[in-house]
Model the fold of this input.
Amino acid sequence: MSDLVVALDVGKTNLRAEVRERGSCRLRVCEGVRGWMGAPGPRAALLTHLAEVCGRLPDAGSLTSAGAGIAGYDSATAVEKDEVSRTLRMALPRARVRVASDVRTAHLGAFRGEPGAILVAGTGAVALAVDPAGASYRAGGLGPVLGDEGGGGWIGREGCLAAARSIDGRGPPTGLARRCERTFGVAATQLGDLLAASPSPAGLFGRFAADVLEAWLEGDEQAGRIAEHAARHLAAAATAVLRKLDAQNRRFAVAGGLSTHATFVAAVTSRVVAAVPEAVCVPARGDALDGAALLASGAET
Done:
């Protein structure tokens, strides 16, 4: 029987899983993630969700290896990391389990073990560079409370704040107020209950990022200010890690949900290239799921 591999990509908004056989996808699952690694309650919800998703896979008892990239994993304690591995091993009893952070699987998918830098701009934001010797350098990715500047959660939060300020008079008028109510079903000044009930407030805010960027393209001044600041934050993270690499290895790729917004990515990459003249933006060879599958096969992050 061919080896069956499960690849998992767990961000702050979505959980994706693929069952692969000989590199071909046999089954794909994508759903909104419940919880995250940054706090005990949300972490317990995340582990429950991981177990549920893995347990639903029709080949769960036959899977021989599993690789998972999980947001916040690098910052977790040894005990917390053991909880993740134990959860996956119980759900996938025959599988050899390997776990890393989602930025490491994104880098592995993008560069297949070769040197370079990845800027992951999803709900969160983090940059990671790996040099030819395998040493890694990281910037950003401090989580939704302390950091993640420029990511989708940050953009969405800033957009909701601009909308709320326009409603109560603290800020200038903006079309973001109307967009916010359309997206969430309540006015920006009434988001408190939704946020309190959400296992991942950053993921909730991340739902609004596309609206903010769309408003920016349509000329909304407040959305433009947010997009400008986000591009500056992301470029700073990429620049910081690229400068750790030799000139001949200063290539970088952009991944994550925001990478599909071509105009915004161009705003980020132009700033990076201006700050690091040797830097070259290249297409990612694969995504975080590809990296998780490579991790499952034994590749080093």
Remarks:
- The chain has twelve helices and ten strands.
- Residues 186 and 193 are 10 Å apart (CA to CA).
- Residues 4-107+287-296 form a domain with the Nucleotidyltransferase; domain 5 fold (CATH 3.30.420.40).
- The chain has a mean pLDDT of 89.
